[in-house]
Structure formats: structure tokens, C-alpha cells
Amino acid sequence: MATAKPPFQTLSSPSLPSPLKLHPQNTTLKFTSKPKILSSQNPNLPSPPKPLTFISILRSIPDWADGIKERRMKQRRPLYKHQDWIRHRSSLRHLRHLLSSLNSRVILSLVPPVIAFTSVAAVVASYNTAVIWHLLPEVFPVLRASSLPYQLTAPALALLLVFRTEASYSRFEEGRKAWSKVISGTNDFARQVIVSVEKDSSLKTALLQYIMAFPVALKCHLVNESDIRTDLHDLLEDDDLAIILSSNHQPRCIIQFISQSMQLLDIEEPKRTVLESKVTCFHEGIGICEQIMGIPIPLSYTRLTSRFLVLWHLTLPVILWDDCNWIVVPATFVSAASLFCIEEVGVLIEEPFQMLCLDELCVRVCENVQEAMRSEKKIREALIMKKEAASRKPSLNGHPTSGDEQKNRSNSSSSR
């Protein structure tokens, strides 16, 4: 039997850092009566080191760069405030960005291709130098070619990169707009519940819990390696959380909780219809986000861009040899770093949910709903006091007048 927690225990706290912060799970070794010798049978035991091979040595640098990039992708991104915008448009931003280049995940991800193509340029330059200095037999020719094909295909490569990046940014913008609708829909839904539901305080509190939990569950559904149990632990009761965790689609399960809670509310039918219409934005948000997540830019487009860039930089040293000689090495380095950087940015923003500050948005939603619930009673009491004070204003004969008498008096004075 799950232990019951006080309903909506996070209402007293101004923020929700704990449920939306990822905590690593503690892994413990479990010993049984029969010890397991093979590491493949016991996943808790460390696996034996893999033998070094030529392929593993070649993959060491790409694996290192990919590991750093993926760890940086999991970092929480804050929402910008006024001071952040001042720093963002500061005149020192160029120097700051240059000095922080080695910490950029985009630049670190370019280490494998840039090193590879710069090495190819160095090999071509060394070979041509050896042929020119007659260090090799005369059978070996100097690798050179006309630059006319590159002049003709350079605009095509530029347009391909621009269209690829623009298509990725369109997906990023679509994901941002979808989450904006989810956040605004959550705030509006909670406001309608707070205003419309006057009775059933326990069921009303539970309904607001489910409304706040939906964007958190949607974030965990979209972001890789999210711990939904930790994120929803302080937002939902243990019994509700167990049902949601056992579901194959946690956001839709929370929508079912919301729908069933509204059916049990003791409210008028028009108000119930208005509240049920607010669930539509949740279904639309799930549909748009899952479509973005499951359908990438056509793979032929991505593969064409990658193959074009690879072939371009493999033959670039041969094209530039007559004009640059050994300068082909830094020229290839600059070209690979620039063009592959543009392509890498397009790949990163193609999946927008890792780039958006979803954790902060979920925290902001919970804070807004909690603040609305805390201030509901105070605002209602203040408005009632104003209404009563207005009804007690003295009339011409010294007696208090009602609101209708004051309205008639104001209309007669305006007609004069």
C-alpha cells in the first residue's frame, strides 16, 4: 500500500527545483547465493576492457568528440533575463565567443572531420613536394587540376548548406511554437479551473496537479534519458504516479486523469464544456512534437549534403596546389572548419527539444499555477471588500445607497 502524501505539497514552495532536476540513480551491487562469474550475466559488474584494434584507434577521437557533445546537449538551458540580453548584445561578445571556442560543442564535434581533411591535405602536399623534388620516380605525376569545376559547383554547395540549415531552423521554430502553445494552454487551463470550480477543493487541487504535471511529462517524453519518476515525484500522489509510470504514453495518461477529474467535478455543464475544450491544446502539442521527433528532414537531403562536403574537401588540396602549394593545408583547415560548422549547426537544431529550455519552462508553469492558487483567496476577498465598500457610499440624504442607485445617479449626472 503506497503511503499517502499531503495533497499538492509543493504549493507552499515558491519554485520546484527538485522535481525538475535530474538526479542520478544509485546503482548497488546485489549479491546472491550463487556468485556470477561472467560479467555478461551480471550487468552491475564492470565489463572487461576491449582490445585495441586499428578501427578502435581510428574511432577514439570521434567517440571522444561525440561523448562531449552529448553531455553538453543534456545540460539545462536557462531562460534569458534582462541581464542575459545585455550580455548577449555586448560589444565584447566577439572576443568572448572567440575565447570560449574550445568549450563549444559545435566546434568540438568538428574535430574528427577537420583533422581528417587537414591530414589529407598534408599528405597531398607532401606527395607533390616529393614528386617535384624528384624524390619519387618520374612515373608518379603531380596531383593538380583546374579550379574551374570548383568555381562552377561552389554556388551549388552554398545553396545546399543554406537550404539545409533553413529547413532545420524551420523545425526548431515549429517546436518552439508548439511548446509556447502548450505552456500558454497550461496557464489558461489552470486559470479556468481556479475561477470556475468553487467546490470540491480536494478534486480541484488534484486536477491542478495533473495540469501542472502534463508539460513535465511531455518534456520527459521528448528529451532522451529524462527521469520522469524524479520529475513528477513532488507533483503527484504515489498512486497516481505509479499508474502514469506503468503507462506506455505518460502524457496521454495524464490527459486521461484530467478528463476523468473534470467529469467528477460538481460544476455547471457550460463550464464543463469550456474546460474540456482546453484539453485540445494538449493533444495538439503532443501531435506536433511527436511529428517533429519522429520525422526528420528527408535523409537523402542530409546524406547529399554530407557527401558533397566530403568529396569537396577530399579534392580541394589537388585543386589549390598550383595556386597555394603548402598553403593548401591551412586553406583546407579553414574551409573544413567553416563549412562543416554550418552543416553541424543544421544537424543540431534539427531536433529542437534538446536545444529548448524545457526544464525552465516547466518550472515557470508550476510557479505560475502555484502563485495563482495562493493569490486566489486574497484577490477574491479584496474584490468583495471593494464591492461592499462601493455599496455603502452615502447618498444625498446621508443613507448608504445600493449599486443600482449609484448607477442611476451617475447616468442622470452624465445626461445633465
TrEMBL record:
Membrane topology (UniProt): Multi-pass membrane protein
GO biological process, one term: regulation of photosynthesis, light reaction
Transmembrane parts of this sequence: none
Compartments reported by the entry: Membrane
Pfam families xref list: Bestrophin_2
GO CC entries: membrane
Record key words, sorted: Ion transport, Membrane, Transmembrane, Transmembrane helix, Transport
Main localization of the protein described in the UniProt heading: membrane
Coiled-coil region: none
Positions of region (Disordered): 1-20, 387-416
Database matches in InterPro entries: VCCN1/2, YneE/VCCN1/2-like
UniProt key word Ion transport: yes
One MF annotation (Gene Ontology) recorded for this entry: voltage-gated chloride channel activity
Composition-biased stretches (Low complexity): 11-20
Protein name: Uncharacterized protein
